[in-house]
Predict the structure.
Amino acid sequence: MTPLSPRQQQILDFLRSFIEEHDYPPSIRDIQEGCGISSTSVVDYNLRKLEEKGFIRRDREISRGIELLGARGRRTRIVEVPLLGTIAAGQPIPVPSSDRWASEAEDYVPVTEEMVRGRSNVFALKVRGKSMIDDLIDDGDIVFLEPVRHADDGDRVAVWLKDRGEVTLKRIYRENGRIRLQPANSAMEPIYTTADNVEIQGRFISSIRPSE
Amino acid sequence: MTPLSPRQQQILDFLRSFIEEHDYPPSIRDIQEGCGISSTSVVDYNLRKLEEKGFIRRDREISRGIELLGARGRRTRIVEVPLLGTIAAGQPIPVPSSDRWASEAEDYVPVTEEMVRGRSNVFALKVRGKSMIDDLIDDGDIVFLEPVRHADDGDRVAVWLKDRGEVTLKRIYRENGRIRLQPANSAMEPIYTTADNVEIQGRFISSIRPSE
DNA sequence: GGTTCCCGCGAACATCCGTTCGGAAGCCGC
DNA sequence: GCGGCTTCCGAACGGATGTTCGCGGGAACC
């Protein structure tokens, strides 16, 4: 439906690479030079065509007022999630209090917004050790959690088990008075305990296993 | 480490919201108006401060030549990884041939460059089913693989087991004539087989477990 | 008081940059 | 041929925009 002339395709490619490199759009004369075009009016003409065909959006009278559109031009945004520490057996996780939230972050993990979509105040923890291997969380993984105190049945939550002095990450179910903590690996046995023994420290949002 | 004056914080917030809205950076006078500042030189002064402190990068003499930097002054790029299909028990994975590589991708998964760093031709597969639960790969996970035919001992590889008609993801070790495939979960038993029964289809790079 | 530094103000300047206009070459269908 | 359409060219206009300079207020310090 959209026949693109070679010149228009060339300009579109240049737009993508320029934005990739600079993080801001090129000026008309940047495009002119980058594509070897002899006149700015040619650039303007073809930009109008690209706008008609729905590949870009232009803000008139504004320098560099070009916005890439379309499925391939869609912009994936990055969220910098505060890395608050490590999660390991035998230690409570450093849940942030609302007043001093990201201020004490030692680092930030940049992830695409899909990883935390919709959730607010998400924080990250690096997993140390293999204590949560039954929950499909390996040493070196990074988990993203939402700081909540309560959860619904079936939620994956990070819970502090008081009697064991251990934090783990399991699905939680309330069953007539007691708590069932179900590992993600269904071949493993669930933990049964009482409500006053567990303390919910966060809800699992997502996780990544970085390249080694 | 870097105390930000209220004015500088205000400008930084404005920068973020402006770019969020327009996809291109504001001009000095946009900032001036948006922050209620009476002179462009004040904006310039504070932008210099923000650059010194590593929050932005400026291209001098260039309109809207402002680039937002993330934590630690680094810039995170996004890589669009082609999603070539699913990986499930009983099916070989759709390894790309070099000639028709990304052309048949049904979709693309945007991830931060850390997830594929350095590797080329990385492709993504969505995991269906729990057949690889012993390798800490859950239903719904997305794994990123590098298309290789050979691997070193200890590499995590996706292998096609001919006798089982199954693909799995394990660490590979060659032990005097036979092959040991070690699950990531050390509580699980390894698979022993012969070299001619396994076909390496890719090397594991990283994986993500998206939010539900 | 004097000095220094941070921060803000206003104006002016030179350039950057989007826009516009006249013209022309090539192509297609009638 | 002829009209219409697309594409390209060169130049000029005017507004947009980054930069610079002098000045001043206020706080901290000696």
